[in-house]
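Problem: given the chain below (216 residues), write out its structure.
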Amino acid sequence: MLTRRLLLGAIAIAPLAACQSIQQPPQAAAEADPYAGWYIGSMPDKPHNVPLVDRSRMDPKYARQTVAYNGPEKPGSIVVDIDERMLYLVQADNKAIRYGVGVGKQGFSWKGTATVGRKGVWPAWSPTTTMVSLKPDLPRHVEAGLDNPLGARALYLHQNGADTLFRIHGTNEPWSIGEQVSSGCVRMLNEDIVDLYERVPVGTTVYVKRNGRYRV
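Solution.
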């Protein structure tokens, strides 16, 4: 089981991420320990175990599941629907694996077509130049670990060989799944991003759409 210290540490640094925006857990003011109740244990991983979320606290529709899918994208593609707060990994036979996600708040969401330019296991984080200009007191680097807001894995989205600075990554704010609160990136539960990471290679096409469209 995760200790209370680790759980609190995993969340304390959440507002530092370029892809994240702080959001308090539900009923935080009413609970003496609002964070620990979100976790029920851990999943073995290296170099850190992955915190497991108590899914009973979440809307069941955001649980990872296989669903019918009739979109035009080829099997193996990732489709993020900003409006639905869902990510689809397209499968053969008109199926997809669907994951609940958190997305960018109004005015920050990105849409378009990209590829997975690289993948990271327990990635480190550094703020963008824009983030530093807005918040000069931000640390310039945060090492990988439970206190890193990018979580257990990250998929880095590229266009024309260049980093877009948008990612699909884990989160230590599980209550934000299904919400529109980040600074643009797509966040997933850590156990879900680990699952997705293992299923997709570098070069995977990613479609991020809003209002049913991903073409800008």
